[in-house]
Amino acid sequence: MTIDDNLARRRRGFRVAPSPFNAVKLELAVLLCVGGLVLVVHGRLAEQAALQGLVLGGYGAGAGLWVGLRTRTVLRRLGHGRGEARPGAGGDGTP
Length: 95
Hints:
With 95 residues, the chain is mainly alpha-helical.
Protein backbone atom coordinates (compact mmCIF):
# COMPACT_ATOMS: atom_id res chain seq x y z
CA MET A 1 0.00 0.00 0.00
CA THR A 2 1.35 3.41 -0.96
CA ILE A 3 0.82 6.72 0.73
CA ASP A 4 -1.68 7.77 -1.97
CA ASP A 5 -3.80 4.66 -1.33
CA ASN A 6 -3.88 5.43 2.38
CA LEU A 7 -4.94 9.05 1.79
CA ALA A 8 -7.68 7.98 -0.59
CA ARG A 9 -9.17 5.74 2.06
CA ARG A 10 -9.23 8.49 4.65
CA ARG A 11 -11.14 10.93 2.43
CA ARG A 12 -14.44 9.15 1.96
CA GLY A 13 -16.58 12.15 2.70
CA PHE A 14 -16.89 15.18 4.84
CA ARG A 15 -17.50 14.15 8.42
CA VAL A 16 -17.82 16.17 11.57
CA ALA A 17 -17.29 14.70 15.00
CA PRO A 18 -20.59 14.29 16.84
CA SER A 19 -21.29 17.31 19.00
CA PRO A 20 -24.42 18.75 20.55
CA PHE A 21 -23.39 22.09 19.03
CA ASN A 22 -23.40 20.90 15.40
CA ALA A 23 -26.89 22.34 14.81
CA VAL A 24 -25.78 25.68 16.25
CA LYS A 25 -22.69 25.65 14.02
CA LEU A 26 -24.84 25.02 10.97
CA GLU A 27 -27.20 27.85 11.90
CA LEU A 28 -24.22 30.14 12.44
CA ALA A 29 -22.90 29.28 8.97
CA VAL A 30 -26.31 30.04 7.44
CA LEU A 31 -26.57 33.32 9.35
CA LEU A 32 -23.09 34.34 8.19
CA CYS A 33 -23.96 33.59 4.55
CA VAL A 34 -27.21 35.55 4.80
CA GLY A 35 -25.30 38.33 6.57
CA GLY A 36 -22.90 38.51 3.64
CA LEU A 37 -25.87 38.79 1.31
CA VAL A 38 -27.37 41.55 3.45
CA LEU A 39 -24.00 43.33 3.39
CA VAL A 40 -23.97 43.21 -0.40
CA VAL A 41 -27.55 44.42 -0.92
CA HIS A 42 -27.98 46.80 2.02
CA GLY A 43 -27.37 49.75 -0.32
CA ARG A 44 -30.46 48.80 -2.29
CA LEU A 45 -32.53 48.14 0.83
CA ALA A 46 -31.94 51.64 2.18
CA GLU A 47 -30.30 54.69 0.63
CA GLN A 48 -29.59 56.72 3.76
CA ALA A 49 -26.38 55.85 5.61
CA ALA A 50 -28.11 55.82 9.00
CA LEU A 51 -30.77 53.43 7.74
CA GLN A 52 -28.11 51.18 6.19
CA GLY A 53 -26.35 51.07 9.55
CA LEU A 54 -29.64 50.24 11.23
CA VAL A 55 -30.27 47.38 8.77
CA LEU A 56 -26.79 45.92 9.26
CA GLY A 57 -26.77 46.48 13.01
CA GLY A 58 -30.25 45.04 13.39
CA TYR A 59 -29.33 41.94 11.45
CA GLY A 60 -26.12 41.52 13.42
CA ALA A 61 -27.87 41.97 16.76
CA GLY A 62 -30.68 39.60 15.79
CA ALA A 63 -28.26 36.95 14.54
CA GLY A 64 -26.13 37.29 17.67
CA LEU A 65 -29.15 36.93 19.93
CA TRP A 66 -30.34 33.90 17.98
CA VAL A 67 -26.98 32.12 18.24
CA GLY A 68 -26.70 33.04 21.92
CA LEU A 69 -30.16 31.69 22.72
CA ARG A 70 -29.55 28.49 20.76
CA THR A 71 -26.24 27.98 22.57
CA ARG A 72 -27.91 28.48 25.94
CA THR A 73 -30.58 25.96 24.97
CA VAL A 74 -27.96 23.35 24.13
CA LEU A 75 -26.02 24.08 27.33
CA ARG A 76 -29.15 23.73 29.43
CA ARG A 77 -29.98 20.46 27.71
CA LEU A 78 -26.50 19.25 28.63
CA GLY A 79 -26.95 20.35 32.24
CA HIS A 80 -24.63 23.35 32.21
CA GLY A 81 -27.28 25.96 32.92
CA ARG A 82 -27.17 28.58 35.64
CA GLY A 83 -26.69 27.36 39.16
CA GLU A 84 -25.75 23.84 38.19
CA ALA A 85 -22.37 22.39 38.95
CA ARG A 86 -20.11 21.93 35.98
CA PRO A 87 -17.52 19.20 35.88
CA GLY A 88 -14.12 20.65 36.76
CA ALA A 89 -15.54 23.93 38.03
CA GLY A 90 -15.69 23.16 41.71
CA GLY A 91 -16.14 25.66 44.49
CA ASP A 92 -12.65 24.90 45.79
CA GLY A 93 -10.98 27.13 43.20
CA THR A 94 -9.85 24.39 40.89
CA PRO A 95 -10.58 24.95 37.20
